[in-house]
Amino acid sequence: MQGSATGLAYRGRTASIGFAHGPLVRVGADTNGERVAGNLAEEALALRAAIEAASGQIADLAGIAGGEAAQILEFQVALLEDEDFIQAIFASIGDGDPADVAWRSALDAQIADYNSAADEYLKARSSDLADLRDRVINILRGDGGPALEIPSGAVVCADDLPPSRFLEIDWSGGGGLALLRGSPTSHVAMLARARGIPMVVQLGAIPDVGANALLDGEGATLELDPSAEQVRLFEKRRESHRKSRASARAILRRPTASWRGERIKLFINIQRVDDLEHPDAQYADGIGLMRTEFLLTERGSLPDEETQFQAYDAVLRWADQRPVTIRTFDAGGDKPVAGFTLDGEANPFLGVRGLRLCLARPEIFAIQLRALARAAVRGNLKVMFPMVTSAAELEAGRKLFADVVQRLQADGIAAMLPELGIMVEVPAAALAITSFKTSFFSIGSNDLAQYVLACDRSNGALAPLMDPLHPAVLELIARTAEHGRRAAISVSLCGDMASDPRCLPALLNCGLRELSVNASALAQIKQTIDRLSSGGGLD
Ligand code: PEP
Ligand code: MG
Fold first, then answer.
1. Quick one: pLDDT at residue 335?
2. Which of 180, 371, 485, 538 has its CA 20 to 30 Å from the CA of residue 33?
3. What pLDDT score was predicted for residue 3?
4. CATH fold for domain 250-534
5. Cα 498 to chain center, whole Å?
6. Is this prediction's pTM over 0.70?
7. What is the pLDDT of residues 355-389, one digit of tens each?
8. What is the per-residue pLDDT for 148?
9. 383 CA to middle of ligand 2, Å?
């Protein structure tokens, strides 16, 4: 939080880029009120009617929303149609539970199940279930009419918001979504992006004040009761965003970006193969970072060699000889994976994560290395290790990889050792950069900044301190770039700084000439380089 004499500013995480200036409307779940229960037969009838009404409401919403939104709602419909599940609730009513109590406890048990899943996708489903729970309870309480009265253009603030409540809001007049918790990977974030509704998540605790709000989905800020000056600056950012979006797409088609006559290579970061469907992805110079740990969390079980090989091969085929840098599993820290990461670490960001974990679990790591070694013969593959602290770890990883390649080749399977690099995201690695014998470096500024600044990257309360432009962070970036220049080793930066136009001048001045950005930021970054190159500043 940044308090100022003029208004309160909060920083969270961007889930959907865009700007909203409007009345602040707080939305709560409020389903804990009293309800007078009837006899057993009345309660069973009440629940039956509430389920039917909820099904009808959801079907209507799905009809209006269509597409992906309808698919999300299908999950809720499927549960309502699951006879075994519903029968068990009627059995509890038969045992004397009121309809709302029986319904709530059955849904709460399901929600707890989904919440405890390691898989982010399954976790995200728990908010769909909470939504369904609340919808039926509201109907049982006679409160099931049109739920939210939200003025056009409002900034909706909630702890979290389920997809169906998002769909009930009329966004045609603009507006935005500010969540105190929430996640950029949730369904509601996906819907917001698809509809161009700005959304900021993980804003943390916000006092119950504020009648007006500015939501900046680009800078991930929420400003309450802003002063005239805050509004002026906000409108300036909004206007510049609108203009640059409009002109950026033309620049995107130009073959290269350059700054002061030097070529700047722009790669993209992906988590999954699907991310390549982004319309701007085709204009990238290649893939600068594939975060493979998202393959681990997708299915709830560790993917086998063939599944991984197919994913890596699909990316290489898409890239068609452009370089593809795949990072080995960076599980641990804020990315726990059931059956892989350690439970109960007191300080997981400083724990057994990244390459440390892979070296501790060679049986899991070897499967990934086999898939990568097989993919390496199919395209321009580079592989990098995350969270490397010492040269000995790099060498241990390299040895495992070389052994895997040798075994594959001995079995007559096409495989090779790809170019090997490391992420520079632990301060010790940046400070001792000359000790790493590797063919490339990729700076992970997200982690580098958290470790240099001693700020947990997921702690919203530290957002104002978590400044990647802090001179200490820039010093380590510049040292790494300088070492790369002297030793003719390529150095890129793939943390979120690269996707932030405000950081570009500093990164270029640090000597970086390769950046890997989110596909949605590619146009804007290319355009910013163009402006800086022609002597223009940032807007
Ligand atoms: C980083 O730390 O900057 C990075 C790119 O990796 P991740 O955000 O996945 O930790
Ligand atoms: Mg990292």
1. 79
2. 180
3. 38
4. TIM Barrel (3.20.20)
5. 16
6. no
7. 999 999 999 999 999 999 999 999 999 999 999 99
8. 53
9. 15
Amino acid type, 34: E
> What are the helix (H) ranges across 39-119?
40-65, 67-80, 83-94, 99-115
Exposure of 271 by Cβ count < 10 A (0-12 exposed, 13-18 middle, 19+ buried)?
middle
Q: Which of the residues are catalytic?
A: 187, 494
Q: Which residues contact 107 (CB under 8 A, 6 or more apart)?
A: 129, 130, 132, 133, 136
- Sorted by sequence, the CB contacts under 8 Å of residue 5 that are 6+ apart come out as 227
Burial class (CB in 10 A: 0-12, 13-18, 19+), 363: exposed
CA of 444, closest atom in ligand 1: 3
Residue 447 annotated as binding?
A: yes
Tell whether ligand 1 has an atom less than 6 A from the beta carbon of residue 519. Answer: no
- For residues 45 and 167, the model is more confident at 45
- How is domain 40-141 classified at the CATH fold level? Enzyme I; Chain A, domain 2 (1.10.274)
| 3-state percent helix, strand, coil for the chain, nearest multiple of 5 | 50, 15, 35
What's the rounded Cα separation, in Å, for the pair 327 and 385? 6
DSSP string, 114-142: HHT-S-HHHHHHHHHHHHHHHHHHHHHTT
113 annotated as a binding-site residue = no
Indicate the top mutation candidate among 446, 473, 503, 507 to test ligand 1's pocket, ranked by most ligand atoms within 8 A of CB.
446
8 Å CB contact between 225 and 8: yes
344, two tokens: 């109960």
pLDDT of residue 6: 46
